Amino acid sequence: MNTAPLTTQELDLMNRYWRAANYLSVGQIYLMDNPLLKRPLEPGDVKPRLLGHWGTTPGLNFIYVHLNRVIKARDLDIVYIAGPGHGGPALVANVWLEGTYSEYYPDVSFDESGMKRLFRQFSFPGGIPSHVAPETPGSIHEGGELGYSISHAYGAVFDNPDLITACVIGDGEAETGPLATAWHSNKFLNPRRDGAVLPILHLNGYKIANPAVLARIPHEELESLMIGYGYKPYFVEGDDPGTMHQKMAATFDLCFDEIAEIQRRARQDGVTERPRWPMIVLRSPKGWTGPKEVDGKPAEGSWRSHQVPFSEVRQNPGHLRLLESWMKSYRAEELFTPDGLLLPELQALAPLGKRRMGDNPNANGGLLLRELRMPDFRDYAVDVPSPGSVVAEAPRPMARLLRDVMKLNESSANFRVFGPDETASNRLGELFEVTGRSWMAERLSSDDHLSPDGRVMEILSEHTCQGWLEGYLLTGRHGFFSCYEAFIHIIDSMFNQHAKWLKVTDSEIPWRRPIASLNYFLTSHVWRQDHNGFSHQDPGFIDHVVNKKGGVIRVYLPPDANTLLSVTDHCLRSRNYINVIVAGKQPAWQWLDMESAVRHCTSGIGIWEWASNDSEQGEPDVVMACAGDVPTLETLAAVDLLRRLAPDLKIRVVNVVDLMTLQPEEEHPHGLADREFDDLFTTDKPVIFAYHGYPWLIHRLTYRRTNHGNMHVRGYKEEGTTTTPFDMVVMNDLDRFHLVADVADRVPVLKHRAAYLKQYVRDRLIEHQEYIRRYGEDMPEIRDWKWEPWK
Ligand SMILES: Cc1ncc(C[n+]2csc(CCOP(=O)(O)OP(=O)(O)O)c2C)c(N)n1
Ligand SMILES: [Mg+2]
To answer: What is the DSSP string of 366-430?
Structure first.
């Protein structure tokens, strides 16, 4: 190994470039005027509110300069992922220094006035956020919520053989669960078809107020940990810039040589073993090159430099002088012309065009997005001669559709399916007819469909699945995530972050091109987790999702296989959304033939005329609404009971596939206009609404509708255990008998018969209880119930 690869001149240039980035970072955090310090710093030059993170920033800058060097020397295609995304000033500074920033934002020009704007806009009202946000060119990782850098980095390079992600991981970030497990992504990366990730664990020693665990364990332990994760760790440690530049350059040379060699062996020699990829541990002081001490307390090399190392700059002349001398220590006159231009010999250090990390098209994935080749989903239809005449498992036809999407797009290698070990369990096993489960670790002959070339990504970490998928989508590809409904909550917070990213890019950043939607298929849902029990019963993800901006979220509850097909086709074609599809996987009655399913899904909500008897009799006495497959079944079974128990009753059945139709149109683009809503639900008749999830959500969505006062919603009330499927709905008052009782309670024309109807219901429920306790399964009249057409 050449331990000192840089010539004296190269070292000087790189160090100056680094100083320039550090200077611009401090300037962004502190200044709103006097960017080149042409006159003595005055309190009015300093921002009134100081917001930003210094501590991580010099390390991020250091890595950026060194990446620029290898990109130029080796013509590499690199995306920079800053795990500690709070180091926004670093990435913004570097993207400006390489000229990209001013191309995206011409107002922030590449000169003194642009530098002033650059400083002023940072963490300033009307300006840019403090993190590596969507506004930052070259970013696919905001890094505000820590833990996802590695999974994003891997997601970005799957099927991207020429791409490398340089992934900086904070030593604090490394303590998070998602990060700790994501190291294992290397068991799913195939060097023949995928790109590479270079993890750089940034041991600056501290988090906000504490040391970082990995910075306080013996060298040997950390080294063993990384070896145990399957990497080959290289250590770059110190604080003297000159020495550190040489060490970093030498280590980068080694790592990129090794990456190239691993890829060459896999691609040319046909080596198929899992390689040991290099990674770097960079130990450098937190707040490196910042003030050594502030008010007698250590700053550089301490947690105290995490954010703004000192903040009374306007009031405290000592702090003002400290800031001035700190900034002057970078000697801007050796970096910029008097007009604020980076000196030409330093400009020459940055890569050109799309090789600049700020302008890498992979970080604006919509630019690279290719349409999926889609078969006609109608070809996968379940034949439904009449409603309720056949039984099917809804996900199976969808699995065939996904299988063929996989097959049709094989050559473009831009579609993968993700899930935590549940693809087969979720009835998507037909995918394995055309692809395997991605796997680079040891394989046994008894394994099922493991393959280094597999395009089904299964790891028992919802976090890693989600992070991979996000990275894959953000770099311009397509994907599908299937998960048990209850456990998707594990990634609630990651969903939040992705939804925020989409909201901002969609509404505020025209240069970010639309990307494929993030599609969740949630199955093994609450109502059919009767065998696994209470822990597996939770439909609350939908409640969480609908908090987000209407512009980016969609929730679908297809009641059967053909509606599921139609919805899936729609979701795979959509852009910039998060689509949540909830549907069960158990054998169930099918309601709609394909053409009816398409019509129903296109409207998102509608009257099921074949299940209603009010069409020729004016307004109904009651509206029976339902959303979700099991609630739809119970609603239809209740209608069936009612037409025998109360034959004169005029019933309208309304089914909701697209939950967001319920919201007012001002709140969600799919929201029905009030007129349409009133037409469906009437303005004054009782509405008995059977809903898949927590009932309060329907109230939340409809509280502004005219007839809200008459809406009575049944759903999951957090009652459940290991019991029979029908007992699950009974425990939550969502069953057909309770629905009949609700109708009896609320429909005035039934008043005189209400007592008898309710007696009937009580008797049936007692029979149910006795029967299941005795026989351990549901009563035959429940198991064998079948829809009979209206005469
Ligand atoms: C999941 C999560 N928890 C807590 C925080 C609050 N937070 C912001 S920065 C930080 C410390 C990060 O330390 P480290 O990863 O070492 O970054 P660096 O030292 O490079 O700033 C914490 C706890 C967060 N952003 N995300
Ligand atoms: Mg740290």
So the answer is: GGT--PPP---GGGG----SSTTS-EEETHHHHHHHHHHHHHHTTTTT-EEEEESS-TTTTT-GG
